[in-house]
Every structure is written in C-alpha cells, then in structure tokens.
Design a protein that fits this description.
The structure holds 2 protein chains of 2 kinds. Chain A has 9 helices and no strands. In chain A, helix 4 packs across helix 7. The longest helix of chain A has 30 residues. Chain B is mainly α. Chain B has 6 helices and 4 strands; from the N terminus they run ααααβαβββα. Classes of the chains: A mainly alpha, B mainly alpha. Chains A and B meet through helix 3, helix 4 and helix 5 of A and helix 1 of B.
C-alpha cells in the first residue's frame, strides 16, 4: 500500500514532470498566462496521461514483449496516445459540450505534449504493473497540474508587477520557472 | 521483421477502427449547445439583442458572453426556456434591448412607396420584393416582424400590423382560475 503512496508522491512532487524532469515545457510556458486556461489544460492532460499510461502498459506487456519488439515502444506509444486524444475529444464533444468549449484547442494539442509520451516511456523503464502504471500516470499528471496552476497564478500577478523593461514578458517567466524548479528540488529529500 | 510489421499494422488498424466507430457513435454536427439555444430563439433576426442575428446571439450565450434576457421577440417564455436549458436562474427581460410586443408583420402602403429599395437592404430575411423606382411589397409568410425595415423608409410607408387570429392560428387559452380575494388583500395592495 505504501509503495503506491510513494509512487503518487514521488511522481507529483519529488520527480515533478515539469520542474525536475523538465518535460512538457511547451504547454507549461504556452498556456500559463491565465489561470482558467491552465486549469482546463491541466485537467485534460490529467485524463489523457492516466489513460495513456494504462494503455501503453497493456500494449507493452501483451503486444510488444511477447514478440520481442521492445524497440517499437516509442512508435506504438505515439500512435496510441494520438488515438486516445482523438477519442477523448469525440466523447467529450458529444457528452459535455460545455467542457469541450472550456478545453477548446488544448485538447488536440495534448497529442504533441512531450510529457504525455515521456511518462509512459519512464513507466515502461520502471517495470510497473497495471495499477502502478495508472498511478504513475495520474501522479505525474497531478504534478503537471500543480506546476501549471502555480505558475499561472504567479504569472497573473506578474502582469501587474513593476518589472524592469528588459525582463518583461517571457524573460521573467523563464526566471520564475527556474526559481520554482529550484524550490521543487527541496522535495528531493522526501523519499529517504 | 515480419512480426514487427504485422504488430504495427494490426495496432494501427485496431485504433483506426476504434476511432472510426467512435466518430460514427459520437457524431455531432456543429456545436449542439448553440443549435439547441438557436432552436429556442424566435428567428426574427431583428438584432435587438445587440448581435447581428439569432445564431450569433445563440453562440454568444453558449460562450457565456451574453445574458439570456436580451431577446424581446422571444418574450418571457423564451427567457424561461433558455434558463431551463442552461440551468440558470430566470430573470426578467432586459428593458435596454426593448419590450415584448404582440407578433406583427410589416405592411407597405403601396400608394406611398417611392421604390427606393432601402427597406430591401435592411430586411434580414429577404421578405421584401421590389426593384428601384418600382413599388415594393412584403411577403407576409416570410416576414418575422423584426421592424428593421421601418426606420430606413424615407416615405414612412411601412406599418407594423399585429397578426390577427385566424381559424388556423387560434389556440385554446391557458385555463385561468379566478382566485377569491381575501380580506387582507386590499390592505396589501395599499401597502404596495
């Protein structure tokens, strides 16, 4: 039981996708200007990432390993992720038009989010079972949401702050991201 | 080599079939919410809500930009239906956008019409026929009663005529029960 808790905590805080593994930086910089869109993007990513981890585990175990095709994992994971994203969009559009409107363009953009490919690959390397894989995906996504929401709220405040002209815009955002990354290094001692 | 090809082809085929089935199963045309709102609006295309027509207003409601009480032709009943569909509180019509009037159609006084075509350009539903320096007339079946043709007319020859009740349009009235006045009522009226 505690091992599952460690997976959750470890992926969300200690090995945070964005701040420690430096994955998924494009949405992290791109859609963090407003808190509202950041939450929408985060929730959509969370859904897709959890599903992607589970299904990539199934494909790896039942399709690739029996045939000795481990070298095809990256390729097949990309295909599966793209399919899941499309499927998610179709289902959401039908069942909840309002949610579909909130997520908007960010839903199809998840396909090209490197965190969504990186986490299943890391998961494969860690040799988890199905439940652990799902938790690994969910925890990583929770870490991603945490990073995105924190960063978006900081950037909303930065908009009104008196920043020296050369640092305005993306420069101060980069510095902020670096400082937040340093802060997250502080969780490194948590698992010992 | 062959097994790799087979596995990838099979994977792609399976995912493609799943997506194809999903796109048939979860088929949506346009935005279902906008269509549902548009179906409630009276389709007068009068622009009293501040949007160029009923569809743009429906899109704005669905997008959360417009309130539901901006459509005078739809009247109180329309607002109630919208509130019901969107799960919002009912609110009275916003007087800024006009007041509810009985359904009417425009009628051109053909003796005074000078054939200037200004009303033809104003009509959102193409219900006015005529040519330059020829008398114009209104196709009553197509007229939505939006009153957009009234202000541009230089000869003031367009009147809004309420639609008279005919044998085809007559409906049973809603039953109204007279409430017996109680003793306290006159006092309450005076207080109000």
């Amino acid at each position: 039981m505690t091992s599952y808790l460690f997976i959750l905590l470890g992926t969300a805080l200690v090995n945070n996708v964005v701040f420690v593994r430096i994955l998924g930086l494009c949405p992290f910089m791109g859609v963090s200007k407003k808190l509202e869109t950041a939450i929408g993007m985060g929730l959509a990513t969370m859904f897709v990432l959890t599903l992607a981890c589970g299904s990539s585990y199934l494909i790896d175990t039942f399709l690739l390993k029996p045939f000795g095709l481990g070298y095809l994992s990256t390729l097949s994971f990309i295909v599966v992720i793209a399919a899941i994203v499309q499927l998610t969009e179709l289902v959401i559009q039908k069942t909840s038009p309002l949610l579909h409107q909130v997520l908007g363009i960010y839903l199809p953009l998840i396909t090209t989010n490197c965190a969504v490919l990186g986490v299943p690959l890391l998961n494969q390397a860690a040799r988890h079972n199905l439940l652990q894989s799902l938790l690994f995906g969910f925890g990583s996504a929770a870490g991603f949401v945490l990073a995105l929401v924190l960063f978006a709220s900081i950037r909303e405040r930065l908009d009104g702050a008196d920043i020296p002209v050369p640092f305005r815009g993306n420069a101060i955002a980069m510095i902020t991201a670096g400082l937040m990354s340093l802060a997250f290094m502080g969780f490194a001692g948590l698992d010992s | 080599m062959i097994s790799a090809l087979l596995v990838m082809t099979g994977l792609a085929l399976a995912l493609g079939a799943a997506l194809g089935a999903a796109s048939v199963l979860f088929k949506t045309q346009g935005d279902p919410l906008v269509d549902k709102i548009d179906a409630i609006l009276p389709q007068t295309q009068c622009g009293q809500c501040g949007y160029p027509g009923c569809k743009p207003y429906a899109t704005a409601i669905a997008g959360g930009e417009a309130d539901i009480n901006q459509c005078p032709p739809g009247g109180d009943e329309g607002v109630r239906k919208l509130a019901d569909l969107l799960g919002r509180e009912y609110k009275p019509l916003n007087a800024e956008h006009g007041v509810e009037k009985p359904k009417a159609v425009a009628v051109i006084d053909e003796a005074t019409c000078i054939g200037c075509t200004l009303c033809i350009q104003a009509c959102p539903v193409d219900a006015i026929v005529g040519a330059a320096k020829q008398m114009h007339t209104i196709v009553t079946d197509l007229c939505t009663g939006c009153e957009l043709c009234v202000p541009p007319c230089p000869a003031d020859c367009i009147d809004m005529v309420p639609v008279a009740e005919t044998v085809e349009t007559w409906k049973w009235r809603y039953p109204v029960f007279e409430l017996k006045p109680v003793a306290a009522e006159p006092a309450a009226k005076e207080a109000a």
